[in-house]
Batch of 3 targets.
Target 1
Amino acid sequence: KNFSTEETKQVLRLSLTEFSLPKFYLLFGISKVKSAAVIAFRSSYRDRSFSPGSYERETFALTSLETVTEALLEIMEACMRDIPTCKWLDQWTELAQKFAFQYNPSLQPRALVVFGCISKRVSHGQIKQIIRILSKGLESCLKGPDNYNSQVLIEATVIALTKLQPLLNK
């Protein structure tokens, strides 16, 4: 059974074209290449000169993650319109929430941003949890202002709260 409508196909085509433009490589943390395929398919087996330390690793900004997440959400919502029983967004939201509220310096900030971007509803309990995370990040920064992980966590909670605030009851 073919679920795709012309509108969905158009969204997918435009998104693919958009993500293929060099100016969007930066969003995925691969701006220093001429083609995304160069990085995506590079391996030490095929390219003996490549090693994990042979290129400068670019940081993936939370604002870039926000933009990528919103673009992926648009693609997912377009596909979901054609698949009535689709639970992709619910599963993605559940996973994002799980990692957003679980301490992990690498994943938690990213999960908070994703959770904020993709959530369609939010409870007061979830907002309280995010505020607690923000509070812990602020406490950590007061102890040592050079704590990069705390600064990233604070930025992530602010992004998440900004996205989630409109979903709250007045």
Target 2
Amino acid sequence: LRLVAVLRAILEGEKAAVLKRDHHLPLSFHRRQEELKFSVGLQRLQHRVREIQALRDGPVGEGPGQDGAGAAPQELPTLILEAVKELEAIKQQVLKRIQIWKRQQQLAGNGAVFEENLAPLQKRCEDLVEVHFQLQQQAMAASAELGPELLPRLLERFSEVLSSLVKR
């Protein structure tokens, strides 16, 4: 009995140490941090789309004009590739949030507290899909600059982003 009492005291001490280390910040802080990270990423992506649009609408064929707009044909594929990479990163954030929501729903069956409101998650998906289509539209409009090899790969990546969002 003495051995059991000693082991119990050790385990309770370890449990307290783990709880102290892992739960020093409230869950609402982590959720708010995640929301801010998504919001900043989405705004950055929207800015990229506007940059691509401005580069495409600029004086491309008129030689090096203001801000080096004459370099647009070389810059445009790079900008679009960076934007697609950011789109995929934001998609991963949304998919992670969906997975967390699904897990919380499963745990609710065991009596855990569950926030059933899907509106924030739906808003994230809608915002992401809206930016997705804007970016895809810009890529299609810039098909001449992207070339016959890059455009199909980009379209495949766009398709993968959309299908993974729909499937999950």
Target 3
Amino acid sequence: QDAIDRKEKRSETFKTAVHGLETVTPALKTEELGRRAPQWVRDNLVTMCMRCKEPFNAITRRRHHCRACGYVVCARCSDYKAELQYDGNRPNRVCQECFIFLTGHTVLEEREGKHKGILEKGAAEVSSRSLLCSSLQLLDKNGKGGTRGWFVIPQDDPLVLYIYAAPQDVRAHTSIPLLGYQVRDMPQSESRHLFQLAQSRQVFTFLADTEELKRRWMKALARSAAGITLPEEEED
């Protein structure tokens, strides 16, 4: 019964939904780490460790949650124990960063000095200050299959389209510089809302969930392709 009660209490804490642009999971303030139960990032919102950025897989790199900050991390990045005040000061599995903060201990594998690459921008952080972001599907060359992902045009990098596998990933898996591309509308067929980015022989075909979302993306992409960097509401 105690286990059931704890499970129900945690379930209430960890309930969160991602809809539309609501992609950011509220994070605990630094001073609250270990003192209050975190809101866990849902497993299906990430495809890679939120600390080391290595992709998850079903066998060798499984998902774990840091009990202090709620991040989804791999086994290697969560191989630490720290006492958490909200759980009666019992040792809990935490990530390396929370371990250092909560215990004051250092670890051998420091990542200090590692600079963020062009793709190492967190999806949630970028989405919160974006010109446009949403889920889209990037179709393959024959237009039948493709990969669904989270697409973002950041305010601070408005001429680039970043593509994430999931809306809470901490690293984009690719990016497309938009300057000079043409945006093409495609006739609606079988309720498929299609549009393209084309430049020379390079063509990307996208599938949006609705016609309204398709129009918004076509407008945003056309502005970026033309080199317009200001948000629409800031123009004269």
